[in-house]
Write a structure and sequence with these properties.
Length: 251
């Protein structure tokens, strides 16, 4: 069964063609949600990649929405770059080095953009990239090994990667905090209750405070929310425990 919709887009600078995929949501087997809002469908990030760096000429451009007229389902008649050439700017994002390389890309983008929504988008992805260093730390603990999801050798190698990620996360903690602070400033007061993004921005603000170890601030906002979804209840539990790491909510 084909699980992807394939699309093609053209670099506005050099006219090179790029191929990309979007996971078809009706065919997703497994959704994974983390406390920072990052969501994966069958291991593919659901957040669209709005910044494209052309693999042919290095020109970079925004794609707000992956639909006509910018993208087409029609296969070009000339050679094209496949998804791996430009997805996450060609970075091998499942390695720790790749995650930090992604952060460097985001820093470069921040230097040249001048738009609050775009800055929010970039800073959020940068936050997630730092968190990726420790996102799956739960896998290095023994219960995960005993769950049988990994063989011993795979688990041992993965554990090594997780420990390295943790070390790098600590090393970059200052800049990770700086980015969260800037994101928080952008989000506070950005949306009103009439906006579609309002509710999710409140949850994001709580999570930012928690990861910044400002538990009292996080709790203060939690106290104003009458509803307790699975997600909110989990965040609150971690706030009370004074835990600051990103964690797996569903998956
Ligand atoms: Zn180009």
């Amino acid at each position: 069964m084909i699980k992807f919709d394939t699309f093609y887009l053209q670099c506005p600078q050099c006219d090179a063609w790029l191929e990309g995929h979007i996971v078809r949501s009706e065919l997703v087997n497994k959704s994974t949600l983390y406390s920072d809002g990052k969501t994966l469908n069958d291991n593919y990030i659901t957040e669209p990649q709005k910044i494209v760096v052309c693999p042919s000429c290095s020109h970079w451009f925004w794609v707000e929405e992956f639909k006509d007229p910018l993208v087409t389902a029609k296969k070009p008649t000339v050679p094209y770059y496949t998804w791996n050439h430009w997805r996450f700017f060609g970075v091998y994002f499942s390695s720790n080095a790749g995650r930090l390389a992604l952060v460097e890309h985001y820093k470069e983008f921040l230097k040249v953009i001048n738009d609050k929504d775009k800055e929010i988008y970039i800073r959020r992805l940068m936050w997630w990239a730092y968190n990726d260093l420790v996102r799956n730390n739960y896998q290095m603990h023994l219960p995960y090994l005993f769950s049988g999801k990994m063989s011993f050798n795979v688990w041992r190698k993965n554990r090594h990667k997780q420990l390295e990620g943790r070390r790098l996360f600590k090393k970059h903690h200052e800049e990770y905090l700086e980015n969260m602070k800037a994101l928080l400033v952008l989000l506070k007061g950005r949306y009103t209750p009439d906006d579609e993004q309002y509710e999710s921005s409140i949850l994001e603000i709580i999570e930012l405070y928690r990861e910044m170890r400002e538990y009292d601030e996080a709790q203060k906002i939690l106290d104003t929310i009458p509803r307790r979804t699975h997600y909110i209840a989990n965040i609150e539990k971690e706030v009370r425990r004074k835990h600051d790491f990103v964690f797996l909510v569903v998956g």
